[in-house]
Amino acid sequence: MIRTLRALLAAAVLAGSLNAFAQQPLDRIAAVVDEDIILQSELDRAVANIRGQYAGREAQLPPADVLQRQVLERLILIRLQAARAASTGMRISDEEVDTAVGNIARQNNLSVDQLRQQLAKDGLSFGDFRSSLRDEIVVQRLRQRFAQRISVSEPEIDAALAAQAGGNTQYRLAHILVGLPEGATAEQIATGQRKIEGIKGLLERGEMEFSAAAVRYSDSPNALEGGDLGWRALDQIPTSFAGTIRGMQTGQIIGPIRGPSGFQLIKLEETRNVGAGGDGQKVTQFQARHILIRVQEGDADAPAKAKLETLRARVVGGADFAQLATENSQDNISKARGGDLGWFAKDDFGPDFGAQVALLSDGQVSPPFKTQAGWHIVQRVGTREADVGTESRRNQVRESIGQRKLEDEWNRFLREMRGEAFIDIRVGAAPAASAG
C-alpha cells in the first residue's frame, strides 16, 4: 500500500477506538486519562504496529517495556488533545468524516469499499479508522486555533534574512531528548544530565547509532522515528544553537544543550543548498479602485449593470470615483478606502477582473463587467514593475519563523496539558498516578 495510507493506518492504530470498551468489556485498562481510558488491546495494537514498521530492524527498538511506555505516552497525548478540543466546543460531523474518508480513498486510487477492504486486510476495523480520523481532524483544528496566537515581527524577519545573506542552506537534523518536568528539582536535573551524558558516551564510543539511541532512549514524541527533525532552514532552528549548526560538519553531534523541554543532543545528518529564493522575479502590478454591485442568484443583471453605467458616466463627467465608491460599493472592505484595492498582480482577484484592469490605461474607467462576486466598474490608478522575489522571501521567512514558534509553543502546551492531567498508568513495573 502506498505511503499515505500506511501513515494513516499507523495513526489510526495509535489513536485506537473510542468504542473499544463497549465491544470488549473484559479488556484490561492500560491507563486512565482524566475521564477517559486507554485499553490494553489498544496499546497492544499500537505496539504491534510499531514493531511491524521496524520489521527487519528489530534491534533498533528499545526493550519491550520502554517501547510500551513510549507508545502509551503517544496514546495519552492523543486522548488529551482530543479532549481539549472537545471542551472548546469543536465537533466533527459524520459528513465531515465521510468527506475525509473519501479524500483518503481517492488519494490512494481506491474506492471507499476498497479502502475498507485494505483496512480489514491490515487488521483495522473501519469503525476504528473513522474514529481515529475524527480525532485527527479535531486535533488539527485545535492546533490551527492555537496557531492564531503566534506572531512574527518585521525585525525578526530582517534578522533572519541577514543570517541567510551568504546563501540559503537547509539542514537535516536529528535529536535525542532527555525530558525534564516543569519546575524540575535539582535532583531531577542532575539525573537528566547524567542520563544524557551516558547516551553521548555510547555514541562517542561507537556502541550505538544515533537513530537507534533516539529510539531507545529519547523522550521526544519523534523518538520512534529515530529522532528525525527533517529539513530546516536557519530561521526554523532555535536561535540558541542556530549559529552552532551553521558551523557543523555532516555527521557531527553537539550537546548536551539545555532547553525548555530538557537536555538535547543534536546531530547534523545532511545539508543542501536550495538556491537564493527568487531574486530578480519581476511582475507587473496594478493599483485600482472599484465599485461592486452584488447580484443574488436568480436576480436579473440589468439593474446592477444600469446602475454602474450611471455611476461611470458621473465619473467621466468629473465626479470623484472614491466618493462614489464609498457611497455605492457593496464591497464592505474596500468601500471604506474609496474602493481602493491597493497593489495587486493581474490574477490576484481572478482572471476576469485582471483582464479588465489590464486593458485600461492609468486613470481610465472600465465599462461595467461581471465576475463571480457581482458587477463592477474599475478605475486603474497606476502600474509598476515589482520585485516579488523580495516579498516572496520575506513571506517564506515569516512562515518559517512562525512554524518554529508554533512548534515550540505547541510542545510547551502539550507538556503543560500532560502535567495538569490526571494520569493513572496501570501497566509496566508498577501502577503510577499523577495529577496536576
Automatic annotation (TrEMBL):
InterPro entries: OMP_Chaperone_SurA, PPIase_dom_sf, PPIase_PpiC, PPIase_PpiC_CS, PPIase_SurA, SurA_N, Trigger_fact/SurA_dom_sf. It is found in: Periplasm. SUPFAM superfamilies: FKBP-like, Triger factor/SurA peptide-binding domain-like. It comes from the Bacteria. GO terms for molecular function: isomerase activity. Its EC number is 5.2.1.8. PANTHER family: CHAPERONE SURA. This is Chaperone SurA. It comes from Lysobacter hankyongensis. The lineage of its organism: Bacteria, Pseudomonadati, Pseudomonadota, Gammaproteobacteria, Lysobacterales.
